[in-house]
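hey m, so remember when u said the tokens were messed up on ur end? i reran from scratch. heres the input so u can diff it against urs
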Amino acid sequence: MNPISLKASSGLNIQQIKDGLTFQHQADAAISQANPVSGTLYEVLPATENVRIISILARIDWETTQPEIWVKITIDGTVILHYSVAAVSAIAQAVLRSYAVDEAWQPLAPLGGEEANRPAFIYEGRNVKVEAYVVWAVTQPTPLVCRVKWAKR
């Protein structure tokens, strides 16, 4: 039974209703994909209901060819791509929302103080999925790392 369903016969008490309306933090969803293949999507957070995304960080180590890092977020069927076309090796890139660009094409940016001014969460939806991938000319033996901090109700 859905904890938010308010039926006279359900017998729900006030605490059950509050619990059903409150986002509860979950263990981080994370990957460390060794030898990522260019253009291959790697699932970080499988499609999950009633999700609030608190933060997303992605990182790739590289030596030969500078890759692009992409994070694909699907929220209620709408795709939003966050990307960094000049990813610095071994520097975490954060999903940030920019109001100056199209909502479907958003930046990934190296961490550097702006996270202190970020909102309490960046996205939420009834059905949310997060995937990550890299694009590069030469596949290198290095991990693609992506971590999602999230909550669920």
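this time it looks ok to me. The chain has one domain: 24-152. if urs says something different then somethings off w ur setup not the seq
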